[in-house]
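Service request form, structural biology core

Requester: graduate student, group of Dr. S.
Request type: structure prediction, single chain
Budget code: on file
Notes: please return the result as structure tokens.

Sequence provided:
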Amino acid sequence: MKKIDLHIHTVSTPSDKKFTFSMERMKWYVEEAKLDAIAITNHNMFDLEQFRIIQQQLAVKVFPGIEVDIEGTH
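Core staff response, request fulfilled:
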């Protein structure tokens, strides 16, 4: 069975509590959790450049995604 986290934020948006993304922390998390894949699902936006960097630096499958707010609610 594959282990996948389909809900990862890498950009702080108005829908999030403030945070700073760390590639080193992401690598640690993926290894520590023994994940086979992740999905980058920031709120209402997609950063293709950042997505490609993450894809290149992780040894697991990285899926694109967007967590969409509906009618202003999360």
